[in-house]
Design brief:
By secondary structure, this protein is an alpha+beta fold. 17% of the residues lie in helices and 25% in strands. The chain contains seven helices and 19 strands. The protein has a nine-stranded mixed beta sheet with strand order 2-3-19-1-4-5-6-7-10. Strand 6 (116-118), helix 2 (124-127) and strand 7 (144-148) form a beta-alpha-beta unit. The two termini are 27 Å apart. 49% of the residues are buried. The structure holds fe (ii) ion.
Length: 350
């Protein structure tokens, strides 16, 4: 239950103390769209929006033949600061390593400076680009912490997007290790790099239903014994997104920032979980894919807009799988809250 400023923290809420960052910058590394150099930067209350155009460094005297690239995937770099300590957390890896590596290079992101990574869920459009950071074979000394929400992350999936539904594949643990990741399964909320926190498993507490366009094969790529008892002995189950997590920050003086990634458990449920864990009701920004496309309906997109209007976050940044129905209605009802992201856009909050 949330009041104007605080939410009551249930006994299960961990960690005991939510880190509060002095500043947070989010950079879109992978999303659907790019935009040339014609959008203005914005200086809004509690938020600066800096555009990157085609990705050319400022001050360059010659246009680059290379450009930022878009694709149907999501990757966000979060840079935060507490006092003199700065940390970089990478949330998701987009669909392809080609796009992520291209965009990181043009945006000047050095993978060696990333302190931790979070994979929101086991879908190809979020993990596919993981080799972009260190290649398929990283130096043995390099092991970047990678947090996932559950064993289900590794199960093979089929995508319900064709006839027959194509195999999506699996996220290969050995390939991850060889590419320099140290996988940590965290179904409960976890502090990331001392400055961010994850939601852990997101309960279904709002009117939102799970909406996941995949089915899962227990035992293929994942360890049956580590799955929930009602799933482990089946050959194929409906995906309920039980392992999906969101990554969150609490920014001093501003409130919560929730990176929802794909929202298969519902974007409102994700935000409510962040509120319950932190004990803070004020939401500064909700950013990510809200998946208000099929199997969700236009009615559900409208309901989510209405719920956001009641929740009253300062800013909503719809990415990736959010869908045009939500964006059009949200722009109509609360135009000052909606900020359109493009690859390379930086959101500075302090
Ligand atoms: Fe997605």
């Amino acid at each position: 239950m949330c009041g104007a400023a605080f939410c009551s923290r249930p006994a299960w809420a961990t960690p005991d103390v939510t880190p509060v960052v002095d500043a947070l910058t989010l950079t879109i590394l992978t999303d659907s769209g790019t935009f040339g150099p014609f959008l203005p930067d914005l200086d809004l209350p509690g938020l600066k929006v800096l555009r990157s155009g085609n990705g050319m460094p400022s001050g360059a005297t010659r246009m680059s033949p290379q450009s930022l690239m878009g694709e149907f995937g999501l990757s966000v770099l979060a840079e935060s600061r507490i006092g003199g300590s700065s940390k970089r957390v990478l949330v998701d890896f987009g669909y392809t390593a080609t796009v992520l590596a291209n965009n990181m290079a043009l945006l000047g992101v050095d993978p060696a400076t990333i302190d931790a990574s979070v994979l929101s869920h086991g879908h190809l459009d979020h993990y596919g680009g993981f080799t972009a950071l260190f290649g398929a074979n990283a130096k043995p000394a390099r092991q970047l912490p990678l947090y996932v929400g559950g064993e289900e992350t590794f199960c093979e999936r089929v995508a319900m997007i064709g006839d027959p539904p194509p195999i999506m594949g699996t996220l290969d643990r050995l390939a991850l290790r060889q590419a320099g990741y140290d996988v940590r399964i965290a179904p409960a909320s976890e502090i990331i790099a001392g400055q961010a926190f994850t939601t852990g498993i997101i309960p279904l507490e709002s009117s939102e239903r799970t909406a996941i366009p995949t089915r899962m094969h227990p035992g293929v790529g994942c360890d049956r014994a580590q799955l929930r008892a009602d799933k482990r002995d089946q050959t194929e189950v409906t995906d309920d997104g039980e392992h999906e997590i969101a990554t969150c920050y609490l920014v001093k003086g501003l409130g919560l920032v929730v990176i929802a990634s794909c929202s298969h458990r519902g974007v409102l449920n994700s935000v409510r979980r962040a509120q319950a864990i932190s004990g803070i009701s004020k939401v500064h920004m909700v950013i990510g894919g809200f998946h208000l496309v099929r199997p969700r309906t236009a009615d559900e997109a409208h309901q989510t807009v209405a719920a956001f209007a009641a929740m009253n976050p300062e800013y909503i940044v719809p990415m990736h799988c959010t869908g045009e129905v939500f964006i059009e209605e949200a722009l109509r009802q609360m135009p000052s809250k909606i900020v359109r992201p493009y690859v390379g856009t930086r959101f500075e909050m302090s």
